[in-house]
Write a structure and sequence with these properties.
The chain is an alpha+beta fold and 171 residues long. It has a domain of 82 residues. It is built from three helices and six strands, in the order αββββααββ. The strands form two sheets. It has a three-stranded antiparallel β-sheet, with no helix packed on it. Strands 5-4-6 form a three-stranded antiparallel β-sheet, with no helix packed on it. A hairpin with a 2-residue loop joins strand 2 and strand 3. 1% of the residues are buried.
Length: 171
């Protein structure tokens, strides 16, 4: 058998294995109903990305007031409802989010028993060699109290996250 024939056989076997291992919708997989929020629009002949109807900013330094929220945040892991995570944010989906949230989104919620976590930072720890690697561990609530300066009162504000995985609901 030539090298070409061996490579073709290996490719076929790999494809069959991947096809066999691939998730199948008939096996109970749930289809997400959360609408995509990223669009590409052409403005004056230039393709511009939009997120939630707002142009996605470049990450170049801008001449504007900014407020860093880096530092210690309170955090709480919870058993996230993964079907809810990818569900459309309509009235029914929002009602389910409120139910899952409990009162954790309210300003008066007592998070004093939650551990702190330095942000920015890695949420899951990466294990040492020959141990199970980092793995997904459900959802995380993060809370941080801050005061914006009075000079920003009445101004447009945009909260930017540089590393949110998949979906984040911000309250």
């Amino acid at each position: 058998m030539s090298n070409w024939e061996r490579a073709a056989s290996l490719l076929k076997a790999t494809w069959l294995c991947l096809f066999w291992l691939a998730p199948n919708a008939s096996m109970g997989q749930v289809v997400a109903t959360l609408d995509a929020t990223l669009q590409l629009r052409t403005v004056d002949g230039i393709t511009v990305p939009y997120q939630n109807g707002i142009p996605v900013p470049s990450f170049e330094k801008q001449e504007r007031t900014s407020l860093s929220l880096a530092g210690p945040w309170r955090k709480q892991r919870f058993a996230a409802n993964h079907d809810l995570t990818l569900k459309k944010r309509d009235a029914a989906g929002f009602a389910e989010l409120l139910s899952e949230a409990g009162d954790r989104f309210k300003p008066e919620f007592d998070d004093s028993g939650w551990p702190t976590h330095q942000i920015p930072g890695v949420e899951n720890t990466i294990n040492a060699y020959e141990r199970r690697p980092e793995y997904y561990q459900d959802g995380v609530w993060y809370r941080r109290t801050f005061m914006a300066p009075d000079s920003l009162r009445g101004s447009f504000a945009k909260l930017m996250f540089y590393a949110v995985n998949y979906v984040a609901d911000v309250w």
